[in-house]
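pinned: reference chain
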Amino acid sequence: GGFGPGELLHVSIYSDSLSDDFVLDTASESISGSPMLHGTNARLIVREEVRAFDGYEQQVISAQCSTPSGILSGHYVISFDGVSSNELPFDASASDVETALEMNGSVGAAKVTRRKMSDRLNSFEWNVIFL
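pinned: its structure tokens
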């Protein structure tokens, strides 16, 4: 494999976001309008897990509410290298996220796994490995 994409994924919970509006944590998003992701302080977070581990970079996207009992619903968008995905549901399957990333064109191959966060309702993490 190579040495990862070299840049972090970015996310948005607004359908009309421009590439400069995408962030690593939607709690810092400052766009007026109605968000697509709903729940008690619903937010998306991107973090780098491992930088170029064995030639593969790993990043994690988390969709969560601020309280364990918060109900999450709606959609979000992923951006990489200025190119945005189609809207993804808050509980998108691993294969849906993988397809959205690979359709970007500059990501290349990716392997995505999804897990439900055990301490929260309707909260998920997607582990993205860039191959």
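why pinned: Confidence is low (pLDDT under 50) at residues 1-5. DSSP finds one helix and nine strands in the chain.
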